[in-house]
Design goal:
5 strands, about 120 residues, about 35% helix, five-stranded mixed β-sheet, Thioredoxin-like_sf, alpha/beta
């Protein structure tokens, strides 16, 4: 009889800081491996993106969600595939499916509520 130990570390833990995505396959892997993933499509030159950065850093360490960041200048095709027309655009995945998409910086409490609604 085979038994599996669910506490053996085989399931990836949510990172406590944002992951920087290096392409479509990487994003697909992250979305598949983690239950709740909030993807921040951002640009270095974007003021609201810079304001959102510490909020997302806090969210990564305070919740079970995985925060992923996609630089739209480096990954234009990936941004296009998600219909990103402005930055920041936040795309939320739950159980591998896209469930929400918001353009613009959202307040910290709204982001936390958004993530927690899918983390239960």
């Amino acid at each position: 009889m085979m038994t599996t130990d669910t506490d053996s570390g085989s399931t990836p833990q949510s990172p406590t800081e944002p992951l920087y995505i290096d392409g479509k396959d990487h994003l697909d892997d992250v979305v598949t491996e983690h239950d709740v993933v909030l993807v921040d499509f951002f640009a270095d030159w974007c003021g609201p993106c810079k304001m959102l950065e510490p909020v997302l850093d806090d969210l990564a360490s305070a919740t079970d969600a995985t925060i992923a960041k996609v630089d739209v200048d480096q990954h234009q095709q990936l941004a296009g595939a998600y219909g990103v027309r402005g930055v920041p655009t936040l795309v939320l995945f739950a159980d591998g499916e896209q469930v929400e998409q918001h353009t613009g910086a959202l307040p910290a409490d709204r982001l936390q509520t958004l993530v927690e609604n899918y983390s239960e």
